[in-house]
Amino acid sequence: MSDLNTQLVEKYRNNFLQEVKDNVEEGDWVKMCMQCGVCSGSCPMGPYWDHPPQEIFMMIRANKREEVLSSNSMWMCTSCYNCIARCPRELPITHIMHGLAHYAKRLGLAPKNQPTIKFSQLFWDNLMKKGRVNELKLGLSLYFMNGFAEGVKKAWKMKDIGLGMTLTRRLNPLEILGGHGVKDQTGFQNMIKKAQELEAARIESSVKK
Amino acid sequence: MSDVVATNQTILVVGGGISGMTAALEAAETGKQVILIEKRPFIGGRVTQLYKYFPKLCHPTCGMEINQRRAKANTNLTILTLAEVSDISGTEGDYTATIKMQPRYVNDNCTACGACNEAVETEFDNDFNYNMDKRKGAYLPYNNAYPQQFVLDSRIIGTDDADKAKAACKYDAIDLDMQEETLEIKAGAVIWATGWQPFDAAKIQPYGYDRIDNVITSVEFERMMDPFGPTGGKILRPSDGKEAKDIAFIQCAGSRDRNYLRHCSRICCMASLKQSTYVREKYADEGKASIYYIDIRAIDRFEDFYQKVQDDDNVTFIKSKVANIVEDKKTGNPVLNGVNTEGYHRYSNPHELVVLAVGMEPSVDKDIFPVEIVLNNNGFIEADNKNGGIFAAGCASDALDVNRAVQNATASALRAVQVVNRVARAED
Ligand SMILES: Cc1cc2nc3c(=O)[nH]c(=O)nc-3n(C[C@H](O)[C@H](O)[C@H](O)COP(=O)(O)OP(=O)(O)OC[C@H]3O[C@@H](n4cnc5c(N)ncnc54)[C@H](O)[C@@H]3O)c2cc1C
Q: Are residues A23 and A106 both part of a single domain?
């Protein structure tokens, strides 16, 4: 568990709702939930994850910090927006779920070996190289995410789609050699660094406040 | 009709529902001159379309009869039906209202014998029954309609049916030459009692009111229970005409929802609890009701009623805002999907019939209100000094049950009486 996590636990002792409000994107909305359950009933992933959104919101209020932040729920959200469309109080539920996911990851509490988390990391690392997504490499790294043998099998299974995409010029095989990127590489890296510094400072100041 | 006499000591009441009738009668019984105008061909408003009243489960006809008798007995009260206000100008103590009157094509000779109805043929959607059945072009809106006079639907004027109706009338009560009229009426104070309308259930896309036959509204369910209603007092499924015994009620259908109506319509919880007793009344132990709710708002003393319904083993409460409804094509049953928030259980429940407890919205569109008046976000009239001598009564001011609507109407009658008293003193 990270140092930051310990500091936050100290700071918000027994008030996880406040912690979420202060630190999670759109977290301020959680208090508006009236527990009608329409989001949970509307979620196409509902049967497959630990806790539906309205249960997560209730758990936040009930101070179930560990359970919430280590839940796989936020990582199962496919951003279909059914919940946002139907929420009678207009809570931006999808965004709150992503905010919670991000926060859990930052604190090192997100579940290990959860496929969406792994893929998100692959996507991020891929994007950070050149400021553009290298789809060929991303696809391959996704296939090989769980080892070499499975990767070969997956790649073989998907070969027709890959070929089709290549023929319709949706996929460039030459990307394997490095691929395209943004023009100003240094500028891009500086920009990301700055954003990360700002974010770290924000959390830091929130811990101290 | 144009012989209506009014001065700036007259009180004008707009809307003849239970609230408007109450306000008009209370004011007239203190000796004031009152003119009541009603858009429909009869007075009584929406309560005439209810089967029973909560909490006592008595029939609305009863109270309505008392009011009708009070109205008949009172010479200070003039009632104009098929009349609508299109404009009000002036200030407190000195208003002029412009009123449009639609022709009834039937005069006071009418004895309600029904011969014209038998003579005509063309049928139209019956709005009294929320278009669940048809009625003819010469009709009495419902059995106890007041005034007890038939009406000719303007759509038969100029057709054979109009002539047939006229020929069938032994009392010379049909006048096909009646025209739309515009009147100007003076008034010292105005009571605005235009009431409510059911929220359009088709707007709630996931509930499929417009797609699934066996999803109906609470107001339609009330009509089904009426022995003289569209189903002869039976609870019948629109899809196959079979009796429905396993019935789901969905609360907050439109209300408390920022996508539809932001306000709580206040009466719908009680209406569904009441309607669950209809199911038991019809089928005894064979009837089952399931109520899907966010939280039950049986306000103040209605808690007793709620507890009684809770004690009924055939009524189930499911704490959940239903996510969506799909139709089981084989059985025609609507299937309700959602999560029961007590224990977070996912359900997929088929029922024979689903009743949406639709919310109440103001009957007058807030964007085209014919009078300058202060409205809240939901379109209900605010009590505000800026309104001068115009006072809201009943559901024009908020979503209310009959008891509260009538109290509110009496209060506004008192306010209006005070205004015309001031006018009278000034003129002495
Ligand atoms: C499903 C359901 C069940 C209910 N059951 C109960 C119950 O059991 N007990 C209970 O206490 N309450 C019940 N209610 C609530 C009850 O219906 C209302 O409290 C009552 O109808 C309010 O009366 P009102 O006169 O204010 O409005 P309305 O009944 O709407 O009357 C308004 C009148 O004004 C007329 N009007 C409208 N616009 C104009 C215009 N521009 N010019 C002239 N006239 C106009 C209309 O035609 C109408 O006649 C129920 C409501 C619903 C939806």
A: yes
